[in-house]
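Researcher: Please predict.
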Amino acid sequence: MALISMTASHHELDLESLEQLTRGTHAMGKSIVTDCARINGSVVLSTCNRFEVYLDVDLDSSAHSLERPDDKYVEHAVSGVAQLISYAANVEPARARHAFTVRTGEDVVTHLFKVASGLDSLVVGEREIAGQVRKSLQSAHADQVTTGSLERLFQRALRTSKNIASQTQLSADGRSVVSVALKLAEPTLPDWGSVSALVVGTGAYAGATVAALRAHGVRDISVYSGSGRAEAFADSHQVVPVFELTEGVADADLILCCSGTGGRAGKSLIVDDTLGVVPAREEEPHSTVSYVLDAASIVAARQARTEQAAGLEGAQRRQVVVDLALHRDADPRIADMDSVLLIDLSTVRANVPDIGEDTVGHAELVLHESVEEYVELEKLRAADVVITRLVESFNQAKTQQILELVRDGFTEEDAKVRVNKAVNPEMHKLIMKVRSSFLR
């Protein structure tokens, strides 16, 4: 068995390339286990700034999961997964493979613990990522594609995240993507208590967005969902459902898009600084783009605002559109419109505030201790499996020797004493050798 992770994130790719790479891969975990014979389990983590695949791969039944497997086995597994992703995302296989950073063994553990704790986030210290890690594990459960190794890994990562949150100041000031976006929006808006906000989308990030708005003092919050889930979301979050997008936009000073259902259809491109821009498949039709919130909707909404205000003042009131979706919800052309400020993930990325080195250092110390403890426990677990087999083998041999001595005239009790005296020291020596070899 071996743990392998494949990571594409804001560290390695621009957000447009990352968006293209994750297109159509929402159910990838089940396909990976179904289509790749040696892969026993898979957990897929997809957020606004990362796409990661964690694999439990059957490479060598005698090895434990934290050993570093042979590169040829790793590349075989990774290439198979990249092939599946390339078809789902409409990206050339070589481009998909090149987009991922691959980790194995203990490096997988350290990386996931960092991710779950917010230490690898676009906004270092964000807490939302822990919920997304938990949700990815729950999805793997629902698809029945997790394994014991992956279960232990993810549960310990979530526990590490809690420990860092409680023992350090890493997330004490509520750092998150949405909090940075709201800070950028603040100078353009009225006082928070007077702001009318529309949330577009009803997923987990929409819930976090509503919470962030309330923390800023926003009381007038409505929600729109193109999939018809606005009313249920509104009931559970005590906000107002909106059933016509243009109407909701017309009434809002601040529109926050986080549905992630917009974006490309047709031919796709993946952009890489080294490899350039390459079409995925030449036979595909010309690319089309659809957005949940397009420029026409903003124009119509602003016209409605003008009519409602019965004058120029209403038309000139500024609006802010915040697009928190990796698969863009808002048409980028909105940024060119007068009196409309567009804030997207790229804007957030360019304005992430620094965090104190002491705070990060303390969090990394807690993380390092957690990784060491987890690795030691996993090695002991792997050693125990080998030792159990070893003891079973010795016991079978002892039983045979006892039977032979009984046939030679010894009593069963004497035979057991003689065999145990001869065999047990050797068995103990081998057990200690096995345990020592696993803990190196």
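Model: The longest helix spans residues 357-407.
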